Amino acid sequence: MTHREPRPDTYRMVFRGAVVPAEPGQSVGAALTAAGIRDWRVTRKGGRPRGLFCGIGICFDCLITVDGVPDRRACLVPAADGLRLGDDEPGEQAGEQAGEQAGEQAGEQAGEQAGEQEGGHVPSV
Ligand code: FES
């Protein structure tokens, strides 16, 4: 893997106290993933990690708090300089529970459909 210098117009976002770089045009989810962060929340039941799954706004697996606003889909939120990402904002739990229920249902449905279409392989969701 080659080291790539950050572009001068690189954004800087903060996730759990760490700076996450992003380039214009990236989504929050893409920037987190590019930074090696594969999950940013856990399911209420079982504590299973969640991050990007569909990447196109359908499954709700990627829910994240952005600047104190809970339940944003990381795959749809454009990266921007100075965004605060993550679960350290007050009042997130209630919204996260609602989002998890929607996300788990949608993710399970998407996984089941993918498994049916791809000969039985169901990605872990
Ligand atoms: S990864 Fe964002 S909605 Fe599926």
From TrEMBL:
Residues 82-125 are annotated as: Disordered. InterPro entries: 2Fe-2S-bd_N, 2Fe-2S_ferredoxin-like_sf. Residues 92-116 have a biased composition (Low complexity). The keyword DNA damage does not apply. Keywords: Oxidoreductase. The keyword Methyltransferase does not apply. It holds the Pfam family Fer2_4. This is (2Fe-2S)-binding protein. It comes from Actinomadura luzonensis.
